[in-house]
Amino acid sequence: MKIVLKDSLKSWPAFGWAMQSFMFVFLARDKSKDLQHMEDVLSYHTSNHHPLSLVLFPEGTDLSPTNMERSNAYAAQNKLPKYKYVLHPKVVGWSRSVALLRDTCTAVYEVTIAYHDFEEGKRTSEASLLAARYPKEVHLHVQRHKMALLPEAPAELEQWCRRSFQLREKRLQQFYTGPRKFGPEVPAPLSQEELERAWRNCLLFWLAGSVVSGLALLLLVGWAWTLTAALVWVILTRLGGADAIELRMHGEQGLYRTLLNKGPAEPQKKLN
Predict the structure, then answer these.
(1) Mean pLDDT by 10-residue block, N- to C-terminus, for the chain (272 residues)?
(2) Cα-to-chain-centroid distance, residue 59
(3) Fewer CB near the last or first residue (10 Å), C or N of the chain?
């Protein structure tokens, strides 16, 4: 599984370096560069003939007041409806990704997420999560669309995505103004007590695992080698990241495939 992320996340220590190594799709929010980069990365993955799933957020960002204003300004400029619960999607990247994965993926899963906020009327944000103000409930509406039934023309794919978000806006409006559910009640797989215990165990596991891994690294290789490794990753990121270097070496237009396609040089014939 690969995730489409904003380019700044590849600079995060450890997490960003790992995502570079896994060849996630990093976008700089520059259409002139991003579409070609997406094509390069996805072509690299599909050429390896491994099963591939792509997680893509067509809105591209969160529902902050600033982003809502930008979305509404875009809607007014392009004579589109204004939304309250979603942003207008970036349809060109969506359309291109579907075209690149049409022969690899069998379906598109459309996911709509709704929250029972920790405090009514205040949307969940990174800051609220760090402050341990988690949503009381998270509801998911998942719909599967067969890839073979999606339109093939880019303009039609873009319009399909826009219609999808129109439906999401209505779905979320009904959720927040109605009974706060997407459909019939589904029995919870865990009780509230079991859920809280599982959450605490997961938190302890990751905290303990991070601390133990860090200490093991320091004890086995020492401060000098650890700092050297971190410095190497910083330099790699400055050069574009391990993912960009991998594409230059093994991508469709990479050095390795260029040399492979040329093959061995033919021996020159001696002149009499």
Answers:
(1) 90 89 89 87 84 89 88 92 93 91 91 82 73 80 93 93 95 89 78 82 88 83 84 90 86 64 50 42
(2) 11
(3) C
Q: Which residue has the tokens 């938190």?
A: 203
DSSP letter at 253?
Answer: T
In terms of pTM, does the model score above 0.85? no
CA triplet 247, 253, 257: central angle to 5 degrees?
A: 90
CA dist 229 and 13 (Å) reads 11
> Cα separation of 14 and 230, whole Å?
9
Helix (H) or strand (E) holding 3: strand 2-6
Neighbours of 240 (CB within 10 A): 15
Q: Are 93 and 101 in contact (CB under 8 A)?
A: no
- Look up residue 74 and give its two tokens: 């875009």
Contact 108, 150 (CB under 8 A): yes
- DSSP classification of residue 112: E
Task: Report how many helices (DSSP H) and strands (DSSP E) the chain contains, helices first.
Answer: 9, 5
What is the structure's pLDDT at 75?
A: 92
Assigned token pair, 256: 């390795």
Asked if residue 244 lies in contact with residue 252, where contact means CB atoms within 8 angstroms, the answer is: no
Which helix (H) or strand (E) segment holds residue 110: the answer is strand 107-116
